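Repro:
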Amino acid sequence: MPLLPGSSLSADTFERLKSLENVARLLPVGAGKDCKGPLISEWSKHPGFTVQELQERFPQAKSVGVITQPLLCFDFDGKSAVDYAIRNGRDPHASESWRVHRTTDPDRFKLLFMPSKEQLNQLPNGQITHSHRTRQPRIWETEDGEQVTIKGEAEEVFCHPGRQIIVAGA
């Protein structure tokens, strides 16, 4: 599908997001050095945009994000994080849920769930943020003397109105 002018999002991507606009709080994303930040201020309090609003008002968006509340997100950053979860009875490959994958690394992905109100009420203030580092970042030097940073790895779990994740786009 062709990309929309100034965006990394295709018309097909927007069409697929339509089924989520009444379930998740959709946000335009593309701010900051890494283009991972929302394009609006006070985004954590925003009720979310419709797909049509995103297309019309934010043609410069690089991606679309969702606020992770009331969604529960398991974020697996690397093979050691996946292995850690499996060893502890949380095999992400055995879960049937909404998955957000990267094209650049099959071991970095997210699983999203929609907890019931009763389940959310079991969390302190209806939210959670937890991280378990499974591998520290490392820096090594190439034969050319160039320093290369290898990202750290962690399993994160969050359901928090102050967190958002990218679900479509760059």
